[in-house]
What we know:
mainly alpha; hpI Integrase, Chain A; three-stranded antiparallel beta sheet; two-stranded antiparallel sheet
Amino acid sequence: MAKNPCQIPGAGAPRAKRRTVATPKQVAALIDEIPGPYKAAVLLAAWGGLRRGEILALRRADLDLEAGTVSVHRNQVELLARRSRFDAKPKTDAGYRTVALPPHVIPVLKKHLNLYAGATRLFVSSTGGPMPGDSLTQAFSRARDRLGMEGFRFHDLRHTGQTLAAATGATLADLMKRLGHSSPAAAMRYLHTVNGRDEAIAEALSAIAEYGDASKLPKSVTMK
């Protein structure tokens, strides 16, 4: 055949689903609203960009609060049909990573270690075993609904953190490392324009036009 008749416009080029981005104030409200054992999980998702399974698989040894980092070595997998859960390796080598945490996260993590963590695992159930994913999701959903954020999912916290990280000037390579993605296409799904970012770019461009050289711009007008 000279031409494949099975041609569908747009096929083969999937578009990422638009996700909700929370504001820093909304993230703080969620942390205030959710019960103590789950606060650290919200912080690690929003400000560290970790997936739910990565968070639930963390060990005490994965936190280095002096350096302000968390290291990902595994992912908690749950098979609902078999009612079982286990820790598995990350799907790709990029999944193994060490993420720098914002300083404001550290005090909450210290409190979590003292009050809620298990002997080895960072997140445990009321019986001391691995925390079920449903327990975290349900606690998050109740806190979210009380705040009027219906439809905002736990995974959207990860998306929120990476979008805000992009607004700081992080490069695609930076975001790939934080996300644990092995391809630029995957990391790009988390990049959206943050409110006010385009206006800041426009102001910086005008300043470049005035000064003629980006390297000579005053700090007050350079992009942050």
